[in-house]
User: What shape does this take?
Amino acid sequence: MNSSKSTVETLSWVGDLDGHLRMIDQTQLPGEFLEIDCIEIQEVWDAIKQLKVRGAPAIGIAAAYGVCLAAKNAIQTGAQDPQQVTQEQADYLATSRPTAVNLFWALNRMKPVIQSDATDLADWQRRLLAEAKEIHEEDRRMCHRIGECGAALLSDGDSVLTHCNAGGLATAEYGTALSVFFTAQDQGKSLHVFVDETRPLLQGARLTAWELRQREVNCTLICDSMAAQVMKEGRVQAVITGADRIAANGDSANKIGTYSLAVLAKHHGVPFYIAAPTSTFDLDLEHGDQIPIELRESAEITDGFGRSTAPSGVPVYNPAFDVTPSELIRGIITDRGLIDPVNASRIQEVVAD
Ligand code: MRU
Assistant: This one.
């Protein structure tokens, strides 16, 4: 990693066992760099729901620390059965958002620790915090490995298109799709990135463009609807996005608009890649139709960012994610190497323990 350029620290645990979770409030970027402290479990749930913390791996890390807060609060309030109270709070956190499997993956990692021997409460709490920190650190390591794997696919001078934000803000530190660009640049390759603004909440414009500029990666912002024209003009050598959940056959859920990019890429002969850690695979689901798609409030479309842009009361459909079929994906860049071709047996080989 090039240490002269700063990367973002999306989340951190402040203090020791009696500490709390600190996170960047991503809803305020790029206008304001604001960090918020979460002390109650409700604050973590709200932060995930309201996208103060967002991006599949970051949601999982936030939830793992949320479990530590739940345990701390259960002990401090003298709960009769701190393990049961903590598990109930963990189950509550699981209701915050449905699509990113990393949330459930992280909570499943915490479960055996919640249920482990709690005779010595301080020791139990220490083991919970250690597990949450390990989930956090593991993600950091996975992101760097994804970067190394993906950078090999890019050549000096390439221009790549990305969607939503799969950067440091969405992970422990370095990102998935953006890790590929950061690593390629650290290797001395000069890159250019087209950033889809990503309607309706503009994660591309607000967060990805911000991160790329922080790291001095050349980028150009476009509206989502311009991707076809940009590809037709031959300006893009690859599309790389993140994912929220990947089924056993490789079908991949990601921010709404990703599927249309994959169709466009196919039409224009541009390779379409997904970059994701192994924690984003859900091998229990055979195919993408089984992935739950989050529906969000209509106001995100009609009244985004302080101004009404649609007639009052107009019916709105607002799915936050779509699923790209595996046949449109040229490869999945993971922390365990490249999955190419994308099919169930190759995924099993790379991802299953
Ligand atoms: O609704 P969001 O902003 O949480 O959606 C995030 C995405 O779709 C990301 O591309 C995905 O989580 C991958 S992050 C490494």
